[in-house]
Amino acid sequence: MNTGTGAHYELCLYNDGSWYLYHYTALESGVLLGSWASSISPATTYHATFSLAGSALTVTIDGTQRISVTDSTISAAGKTGVKFYGTAADGSGLVIDNFVASETTANTYTFSGPILGQVNAASTNFSVTPNGIYTGTITPATSGTGSFTPASLTWSAESTTQTFTYTPSSVSGSPHTISVSSAPALTDPASIAYTVIPVQSSVAVNNAALYWSRDNVYVNGSTNALMLVMGSYLKTNFTGTTFGVNVDTSALSTAGIAAARYPVIRYAVDGGAWTTAQLNTTTSTYWSAGLSSGTHTFRLEYDSGAPYSGTTLIDKWTTPVNPVNITSFSIDSGSSASSPSTLSELLRVDGDSITEGLRSVDATDTIAGNSASAAYPHVLAGLMNVEYAQLGYGGQGWTTLGSGNVPTYPNAVDYYYNGVSRLSGGVLAQAPTYWLIVHGVNDGGAAISSAVQTRIGQARTEAGAACHIFVTVPFAGTERTNITNAYNAYVAANPTDTKVHLLDLGAGFSFTTTDGTHPDTPSHSTIATALAAAINAQLPSMTASPTSLVQGTIGNEVILTGTNTSWTAGTPGSPVFSLTGSPDARIASQRITSATAATLTIDAGSYPGTLRIVDGGNSTSTSITVTARGGVSVPASTPPQPPATGFAVAINNGDASTTSTAVTLALTGGPDTATMAISNSADFSSIGIEPYAATKLWNLCSGLTACAPGTYTVYAKFYNASGASSDAVSDGISLMVQEEVPAHATSTPPVPSGSALLDNLQRISVSIHDLIKSPDNTAVYYVGTDGKRHAFPNEQVYFTWYADFSGIRIVSTVDLATIPLGANVTYKPGARPVKFLTDPKVYAVASGGILRWITSELIAATIYGVDWNRMVDDVNDILFGNYAFGSDIISPADYDPATAAASVQYPGDGRGF
Known about the structure:
This protein is mainly beta.
């Protein structure tokens, strides 16, 4: 407070009913701080309260705050006086009946400050603020080794904020606990964990160890790298315990961009959880610290930006304001950066705000509503196992300017931004393997055919002859005619260019949006899945049978060998050899360059996963485990370890005969058995590999066209994690005709009918929706609302409704017989596609046990994903009568598995039981 002679405040009430608050720094020099006009009544008592806290002053009159101001002249410790003065309209004056002067005394204080800094370097300021007037000393302390400047802080009848810095002298014990204590004692606040990092050295943005996503990051020498659009990314490897990303936000600040509109980045170390951060003016470095010693992977993505600052479009072109501007990286002194593992193919996607990821989360035009990682290019790159460049500019079209000063697509495509070319000698520095051009939504019916046709030719020149260029009709079908005409005209004029494709998801393709235009996050995934299927369908096909992986002779090389292979080696469109599995769904991939073998280099670690060869619309895979970087691989040809008693399968505990086709298998696997295959056929036709289990319910007639009495054999194979199998083992049993039991020999009550069915269930303590079985038979039944039991024909059907057998109740054979049989349970709607053994058609299951023919593979891939054919279950022809048939599916919009699944809860829903 000011301490000048005569300094005081005056609260005055005048005859016109106005209240005035003055500050006098001298006896006759007053400054009006605030006022309030009221209507006063004669002979009325008014109660006024004056409060001064720091530089904030408030006046409350009769319990209501009327004046609230800040007195910026208060800058030092001291006291001040208050004078009340006034004359009422009737001359009775202003009466002060009670006046109490008091000041707030501190009982605690706040403590804040940084949480990370370098060894032997002073931190930024820690701040300490008493919550009232305090006379005393507050002293900082550390759990580590280091010093404070100043060593303690002292207050004398004041409450001002004071600061200190911390200089750690060792990394040992990091994070150091910084605490504060007071004397005389106040309530001390919580301590701060301060991470101490080693002395750092700098890595320039043009270091060869950094992989920047192509075509959407402008690396300006060693000075800075501009991540120009949402979806830009960086990855690298580094050694040591610390990695820092140094960012410059001065362009955002200078342009007056609101803090809520600053870009959002996300980054992850070693494939772990993402750390998300919104850039700001006070944080210049974003750290991953406290890591274990060794080599680490790092990935950073520009995930969300905003097109507007308030109602003004942010400049994205003339002098771009909102790129993520990275100036350098920090690593531990003495550590190094190294090149990351990169995928062999590059996907580039050019488009508008949909490609960018705007409003992919919600309909608001905010940072929270936008996300590049939710957009279809990001998802598509994962499905195709490729590096990618996501290039979207909101509002842009073939003939339409983009927002933020961005030119039309043909005039912008060759530039990072105004005047800065992507091309070198007229071509791209790295040609994409696949180039999708998705424009037309913003053109509004304009004449674009000429622009499209011209641009295809320019793209071919810039990307070279090997690039697959996909001229894409927008997903809502906008400009379909113009784009198709332009494509046809180009193909007619360039008949030898067989790697330009028209990509059209079809008039029936539909998706949900956040705002009527922009797809929501699930729809972006739907679009990506449909695109992947459509792209694969236009690439060369292949067949391949991989047999094993073996460790390479150099470092962490892995070599694939195969038989019965047929592929075109080493060109775009030829097969990709890739290894997928935990902890990263996209570990590595490599173009196959030989007709019989391929070599792949992967990161260190053990990967139980899937070896895939993918090309065109076909793929083949085998389970495999590979340990890289000095480890020993487990090739597919190494058989699993047998148990001491040998691999075995036993039917009904070795019984010689059975009167039921439903039996229980006892399966004996080895110590490394991971999966198994069961079949009624010695050639294991029409079977799938499933997780190993010691017991399994089985139908002796599964996969067979007839089921007469006789001897039946069940075959089993056991697989280890690498996918290698044991020799087949088997067991046989005689299926007998069940003899009828004479009426006088049974105590089974007569089977009830009609409404008595439900009464019967109550009598034997069985409820509707129960799962039941008898103790001497493996058949499982669902109890319907009709009072009947409905059999699950096999496990495949059962497991579409239930996750396990834990809910099955055992009822006596006598009681089971009182419940009449009803119709068999059919596959759960939406669970998986099905086909009959002798019918090539694949069907989706709808409510009511209705099958709907999926009329094309593209539609199937859009509905179920690119691996749809692995989901198909074969249904025995003898179960044909269990199903009815509905309308054909001629568009992905005709059937949604999630909607179909949500339409039912129990096996009888939609079927009348």
